[in-house]
């Protein structure tokens, strides 16, 4: 299954922007109930995604994120940022070189 096309065009993919696209009322930037309602709205629009079990959905999310990161890195490099690196690991990243 290819990565779902959420039809948001260019721009933000934060909770506020995606809630707006799916018609979900967002109470605040960290509204867990809105996130749950959004998950239901996404499932309603994308039945193939809704049919996946939790483990398979998670596996696909990892693949989809890696595909997005590679595509975004290519975009940045085409735009002149020849040394751009977009980390394709999700949901966990190696923090060995970062201060915690």
Helix content: 40-55%
Shape: globular
**Mean pLDDT across every amino acid position:** 86
Counting DSSP H or I runs of 4 or more residues, the number of helices is 4
Number of strands: 0
Gyration radius, in Å = 16 Å
Distance between the termini: 36 Å
H and E string? HHHH
- The share of residues in extended strands comes to under 5%
Poorly predicted runs are none
Major sheet characteristics: none
- Which structural class matches the secondary elements? mainly alpha
Keywords:
100 residues, mainly alpha
Please tell me about this protein's structure.
- By secondary structure, the chain is mostly helical.
- It has a domain at 15-78.
- It has four helices and no strands.
- The chain has helices at residues 15-22, 32-45, 47-50, 54-78.
- Helix 1 packs across helix 2.
- The chain is globular and about 40 Å long.
Summarize the structure.
By secondary structure, the protein is an all-alpha fold.
Chart the SSEs and their pairings:
Elements: H1 15-22, H2 32-45, H3 47-50, H4 54-78
């Amino acid at each position: 299954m290819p990565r779902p096309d959420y039809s948001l065009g260019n721009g933000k993919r934060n909770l506020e922007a995606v809630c707006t696209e799916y018609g979900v009322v967002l109470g605040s930037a960290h509204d867990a109930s809105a996130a749950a309602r959004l998950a239901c709205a996404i499932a309603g629009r994308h039945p193939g995604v809704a049919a996946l079990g939790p483990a398979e959905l998670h596996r696909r999310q990892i693949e989809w994120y890696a595909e997005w990161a590679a595509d975004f890195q290519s975009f940045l490099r085409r735009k002149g940022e020849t040394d751009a690196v977009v980390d394709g690991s999700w949901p966990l990243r190696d923090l060995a070189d970062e201060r915690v």
